[in-house]
Specification:
186 residues, alpha+beta, 8 helices, 21% strand
């Protein structure tokens, strides 16, 4: 099964470990975790609704685990609102696709914005938990991830760091906007 299989095993272990924790916030997430930080911020109501009601439990577990360091690119409610209805409906009706898209927002290890900007100046690519690459770039000093702009940086959590993005990141192997064109564009 390769790398995604290893990621699944690691995330399942993180869920088990998170379930053993004893400090939780009212939302039921460990205090200071990425999940609790996102749940406390009303800019992420759509994301949290998807995580709590539609996403496979393994995804929520990784964001709630205190034993995993990740960088999470969190799309705002406006980012989800900008998606056409068809692709969003397709994602919400297919756990495999939804997990791939959510995992595409996460990188193993906690990367500060300074580290990401440095990476953007070098090769500009990082592997996500989904197994795909994201492209980091700078536009007049502003960090971009694939086609999204990072609009807030370095929100610290006990299990990593959150960077807020203005678009939902879709890995290239997920075709919710229709099949890829023969030229590779769109």
């Amino acid at each position: 099964m390769g790398r995604p299989g290893h990621a699944l095993v690691a995330l399942l272990a993180a869920i088990t470990l998170a379930a053993c924790g004893d400090e939780t916030e009212p939302e039921g997430y460990p205090e200071g975790s990425i999940a609790s930080v996102l749940a406390a911020d009303n800019r992420f109501d759509t994301l949290m609704g998807i995580l709590e009601h539609d996403a496979p439990a393994v995804v929520v577990g990784s964001l709630a685990s205190r034993d995993v360091d990740i960088t999470f690119f969190a799309p705002t409610d406006q980012a989800f609102a900008a998606l056409p209805d068809g692709p969003l409906d397709a994602l919400l009706s297919d756990d495999r696709l939804l997990k791939a898209v959510l995992d595409h927002h996460a990188i193993r290890g906690a990367y500060s914005s300074a580290e990401l900007k440095s990476r953007a100046r070098e090769d500009g690519r990082l592997g996500t938990i989904a197994g795909a690459l994201i492209e980091l770039s700078l536009d007049d000093g502003v960090l971009r991830v694939d086609e999204a702009t990072v609009i807030e940086v370095d929100i610290e959590a006990v299990n990593g760091v959150i960077h807020v993005v203005d678009a939902v990141l879709i890995p290239e192997f997920v075709h919710v906007f229709g099949p890829p064109s023969p030229t590779g564009q769109g």
